[in-house]
Amino acid sequence: MGRKLIEHPFYAIIYGSFVLFIVFPIVYTLGTTFFDGSSLAGNILLLDKDIFLLLVKSCIIAFCIAMLSTIFGTSLGFLLYKTDFPFRSFFKIALLIPLFISPYILAVAWKDFIYVFFNNTDLISSSIGVILVLSFIYTPLSMIITGSGLSNINSHLEEMGLLTTGLRSVVFKIMLPLMKPALLSSFVLVFIFSISNFSVPAFFGVKLFTTEIFIQFSAFYNHSLAILQSAFLVVICLLLLYADRKHLADASFLSIGGKGTSIRKYSLGKGLWLGWFGASFWFLISVIFPFIILFIQSFRGGASKFIQAFDLLKSTFSDSILLAFSGAIITTIVGFTAAYFSETKNRNFFNWLLLFVFAVPSVIFGISLIKFYNHPGLDMIYASYTIILIGYTGKFSFISAKLTANAIKQIPYSLEEAAQIEGIGLYRRLRTIIFPLIMPALFASVVINFIFCLGELGTTIMVYPPGTEIMPIKVFTIMANAPQSLVSSMSLIVFSVTLVVIISLAYFGKKFIRST
Amino acid sequence: MKRVIFSIALSLVLITVSCTDDSNVVVVYTTVDQVFSEPVLKGFEEVTGIEVRAVYDTEETKSTGILNLLIAEKDNPQCDVFWSGDPLRTIVLKNKDITTPYKSRMADDIDDVFKDPKGHWTGFSARARVLIYNKDLLDPADVPRSVFDLTEEQYRGQVAIANPLFGTTTFQIAALFTILGDKKAKQYLADLKNNDLVIATSNGDVKKRVSKGEIACGLTDTDDAFEAIKEGANVGIVFLDQQGIGTLIMPNTVNLINNAQHPGNGKELIGFLLSKETETTLANSCAQMPLHKGVKVPEGVPSLDNIVPMRIDYGKTAQTLEEIQSYLKEWVEN
Lengths: 516, 334
What we know:
The complex is a heterodimer of chains A (516) and B (334).
Chain A: H1 2-7, H2 9-34, H3 37-45, H4 49-82, H5 88-94, H6 97-100, H7 103-118, H8 127-151, H9 155-164, H10 167-178, H11 180-196, H12 199-204, H13 209-218, H14 223-247, H15 272-299, H16 304-345, H17 349-359, H18 362-373, H19 379-382, H20 386-409, H21 413-421, H22 426-455, H23 460-463, H24 471-478, H25 484-515
Helix pairs in contact in A: 2-16, 2-18, 2-20, 4-8, 4-11, 7-8, 7-15, 8-11, 9-10, 11-14, 13-14, 15-25, 16-17, 16-20, 16-22, 16-25, 17-20, 18-20, 20-22, 21-22, 22-25, 24-25
Chain B: H1 2-18, E1 25-30, H2 34-48, E2 51-56, H3 65-72, E3 81-84, H4 87-95, E4 99-100, E5 122-134, E6 159-162, H5 167-180, H6 182-194, E7 198-200, H7 203-212, E8 217-221, H8 222-230, E9 235-238, E10 249-257, H9 263-273, H10 276-286, H11 314-333
Parallel strand pairs in B: 1-2, 1-3, 6-7, 6-8
Antiparallel strand pairs in B: 3-10, 4-10, 5-8, 5-9, 5-10
Helix pairs in contact in B: 4-11, 5-6, 5-11
């Protein structure tokens, strides 16, 4: 093992750093909790039937969200990735908007929207509200995953099917079975994101497992019990991810840009109106409605609150963007390393570690980082932005690994083998063969993780250094007691900044990809 | 590629270096809403030239933030001064040996009831728990005057309070327990629940629901209530129980952290927070009531001289709170 690591110093450094800086703090915290005999015994007694019923309720709600998101995401993915639907490029970007905005803000906007129309918020202040809002947020994620899966289906298979049978049979008997990995992957990821979400159920007053963990933290200051309860969430997430990986070991999904395959586009023909209705309706309810509310709230009394919000947030722009960008680059490097060595050298353990950290709830991860890094001598890390970058790396490297793994899988091994026979070393092979071929996937990984890093709150709020200003934290802390118009204005500004950066990244990224 | 990697590495180093130590700083953690606390801290920077590094938290959005952070950092504190929106959080820290005694002479004329006898915390600028009501939904004659009125049939389903497991609502319930005793307080809470009490997510949520006319009235803090009026909502405010047990007064508190890294600067900040100038700023920004005598306040901001306060011992109330938390959790959930 040791010899193998040293064989590839780059891999050894990345792998070793991840274990040391990220995995070890979590293991240390879990260890000190589980091996603290007295508190563990007492806390185990507190794990009664109600806790497990709550866990079941959380699983049911997360299941509903994952199902709905996958169903709607797949439908939209098919429409936008597999048909000749006009303006699909616009909708591919526009429908992603809910992913850019804090779930809490969207929950507020939806509640206000329902109140305006029904003069009552009982219906949305319930499990239904949680399912509705989180489904709107995660459907775009599902759309990207299933859309990529659909794009990777070999068009020859579809064409052969169409020669002998109708479209319906091709969809159900060829396309759906082929994209099963993408469907399952979408389901699992959305399930994990949903079951870990705290802000939306808390806002709607719905008691779930995450809110219970929060009560132990914030009302009882019982860290041990909260960590113990979190362990159940971690186990559930790991089991799901294990099933996902086991089942999908060689399946292709979550890839950006298919190598060696051509995408077959279907003509909507008479069904065009249905496509228009579907895309427009979803755009209307998931993007336009909440935005109308945010706009009305922002500008009801003129532009003064918007200007005030801009003044409050402008000092956070540069640091937040630089941090998110650095986070996106680091997670992509770590994710690629894990994916490459897993795909080509069959070293899967690093991938499993990424998956383990991804499954740990944000608050527990934050507490772990505090307990581990807040020691004299480690202030260089703890009292600086490095701690936030460590947080980002732990939270999002798994997503990068998923995104890049399949792109690597699509590169014929013969290419690398031929180069290896010629005596070309690993780093040159990476530079001249692998990177150019997977550049779209690496780029997508940077963009997606940039969005996630820029909006990350759960861990960052626990560890952000005193005196620093990060955009999502500032929005979150100013929300309290600030007029609704100011909060809505800040949400619009955050969204605009994110969008501008992403469009810039897309513009320069395309140029960069072409040049490579 | 090498240039890209070098640039990233350089950026990371610069980020790290830019945040490293400086002795002319003070680190403050505050649970007071950032919109109100940040201007005060900036004022301190301007007056003293000492850089303030703040970590903000908010009861409103229920982050797990600062108190847990202070507890987790106990063995190697990063914070010098903790500025809390109410005394109970500070007392939790005191009980966990996270605070250290410090008595500032700036607080000499503040009533002893608002100070820890050993100097672990000192109070300043206070808020009160008040009733906010929607003027479109309640005639002046029908507005409740006591917390005990809220259990009457005419207010069925028309009263909201924030989740009593958190923030100042916990404080109010704990204060009722210390005044009424366990039996009567539990009966009162049961009556409230039987009267279809609405449990909102936060005091801000109570304010919002009443302002929009979703419900007729609710219990909240003075800063939330005055904010609603500032926003133009058609609401009124009542200081409850002026003929009875009095209104709960909740001072801000400030304390020095045990083994703070910048104790000198921390003491200077504590002195600044306890000054009349800070009380004036907070009276102007969020209608907080000064505890010093002779502080000028804007029109509309109530004076403690005109309010009958609830007579409680803050330390005892904090202890009661710890004792009733499990009961409250059950009360909320069932």
